[in-house]
Design brief:
This protein is mostly helical and 136 residues long. It contains eight helices and three strands. Strands 1-2-3 form a three-stranded parallel sheet. Helix 4 runs antiparallel to helix 5 (67-81) and helix 5 (67-81) runs antiparallel to helix 6 (85-96). The chain is elongated.
């Protein structure tokens, strides 16, 4: 399958949990896909806090490399943005999958010259088209 034979990196599609279970692979979520929802999480914040929220979220996804640092950042973000329902929802959803986040295809990640998601996206599309994986 895509990347290492023991893992499956993808977005959070409805089919992913079932597919990874049937294939016996560890499910990972691409930080790029997770970052696409940051703006929704910033809805309702004033301009200053919206920009700060977006920066803090990108830092969580791409900048922090320790478990302790990530947990501290989540705590700080919840204290800062937790009164805003959109931000609280985004942070809560991100926190639920924090152990599955994968920094895929970035300059700082060694990928043996594989710098495109085309191969893994094609494989994921083939899996997604198989009804055995869609019916949980």
């Amino acid at each position: 399958m895509n990347s290492y034979h023991g893992s499956m990196g993808t977005d959070r599609g409805t089919w992913t949990n079932r597919a990874s279970e049937l294939l016996g692979k560890r499910l990972l979520y691409c930080c790029k896909h997770e970052s696409e929802h940051i703006l929704k999480g910033a809805a309702g914040l004033d301009e200053f806090h919206r920009n700060k929220f977006m920066s803090d979220c990108f830092d969580m996804l791409y900048g922090i490399s320790s478990i302790e640092g990530l947990e501290q950042k989540f705590t700080n973000c919840l204290m800062t943005y937790g009164n805003n329902p959109s931000s609280k929802s985004y942070l809560g959803n991100l926190h639920k999958v924090r152990d599955k986040l994968c920094k895929a295809y970035t300059q700082s990640v060694f990928s043996m010259l594989h710098n495109s998601t085309q191969r893994s996206e094609g494989e994921n599309a083939a899996i997604q088209g198989n009804n055995n994986y869609l019916n949980a």
